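Example record used in the benchmark description.
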Amino acid sequence: MPGSGACTSIINLRYQDGREGSPSNPAKFNRQDHAQLRDACVRRGRPFVDNTFPPNARSLGQLYALTDILKMHHVDDEPVFCQGGASRFDFGQGVVSNCWFLAAVSSLTCNEQLTAQVVPMDQAFADAGGIFHFRFWRFGMWLDVVIDDHLPTLDHQLLSVHSNGVNEFWVPLLEKAYAKVCGSYADMNIGIPSEACKDFTGGVNMSYGLGEAHREGHNDDLWLSLTRASGCKSMICCGTPPAGETFANTVAHTGLVDAHAYSVTGVTEVEYNGSKVKLVRILNPWGEQEWTGKWSDRSGMWKKVSPTDQEKHFNRNDGEFWMELEDFCHNFNMVSMCCENPNFIDGDLTCQWKCMIYDGSWAAGKSAGGAIDADTFHTNPQYRIQVTIIDEKEPGDKNILLSLMQKPLLNRQNRRFYQIGLTVFKTPQGRLKAPFFRANFPVKEKQLYSSDRELIEQHSLEPGEYVIVASTQKPYMTADFVLTVYTKAEAKISAHDGHDDDDDDDDDHEHHGLIHPQALSFTVVVYGICTGLRGKKAVRHLPLIQNAAARVLTRTNRDECERFHSEAGDFPVFGLLVHHLEELHHTHDAPGKLIK
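Model output (structure tokens):
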């Protein structure tokens, strides 16, 4: 296993000079300056009340009718901010269904450096003036979020997260600050841990489907990813599937909670009956209710391992337990790993990645062109990247990582995310217009669209120039987004995200090959015959076939045609299609008869 925390730090080109929004100089959320507000409260002798997140329905949402709002001194006579350092055992979940957030907090505490970035520890109730602050990464920049110390209660008990046995309040206050950036406490009902992990790190977030990995026999690959991520002190969270059509947190016969988020706090191997057994340590944010199967707290299997391995065993009702990797894959349906640095993905801890962050937007009728098969695809924001070198030792290595994150239009609970995707082309210079996309293949032929907040893709790019196109699956969708480009190789990046108002495809039709409807319908028919697809299913795969048809019909050189044939991984009968298209070409006097 790699040494803990051994990852080389990433170079963020956007914030390399320490400008506002960097970890060392976070932007002020709602333009509230913590130091100035605190000093003003101390001078006036009055505690701070946050008018931007007031203690009423505005901050509580639908929970307002259930609660009272109390200051810390009314909840506990001697409150402290944090006692003895932050620990994953400091807290337990309350009434609000935000296990996803608390699972991420549990993982956060496993990395002391990250915890200090998110939770400034130089805070105390005695000299705070009723004001506290926390830091989150939100959509491309770090924010400093100011709150007061009014917390929601029910019968004089904290409504949401509560401290376990001591009077410290750093987690309830952290929760309030995060509720503020989300919109309200009610906006934190239900979510996925990877979102909070991203907001705690600003790093790279990778998610894996456990059922699929297990069925396809990829347990060894999963274990390698878990050990690498753990060695880099990544934030690792996992989740159980719902028991039925609802997302009720029912307790299964295994002791696990259905539709529930957990954090992964460790991985190890033990010797058992002469064989190595892979174990995963998991924490329930409830602070109780544990797994009861093999390798659980009360399992007799721990008596049959070496004294050294027995030291890893504990028997306490704190929500933390061990599971064998096989059981982990069988009972959980997803795991996410988040780290400041992409090094945890391939285990190369010495590589110094660079990243560049771009703010962009899709505007209906201007720069929201939709998917690659849309006529308006070329109007989408475009970003040019020049890869200058590759790792000669690992020529096929994934040297580019792309993150596309869409910003919500509304508060978190009422947000709507579109299906978003990334398409990469090897390109000539300049902004690319419509004919280019009709006549060229993307680097990655299978296009993935996701309705999650963030889409992550890895690419292995040879030296050359490429264009990254950020798009929604449907055109005319208006939204803002953040594109982050991580480069392992030396690279230059520039944005071409404007819209060319004078873009007119008609001037280029003669040379770039729009297919005539007669040839287009023939293409669909031939493709349908070759693949057994009909109707809409055939049309769905049409863009790649259409591009190839355009090349054939305009009589590009033979080498190009052979390249289409050799690269047609998903189309084993591509050669037959090319043959038919060439025959179609020869039945006409000239290609111009088939092309507009």
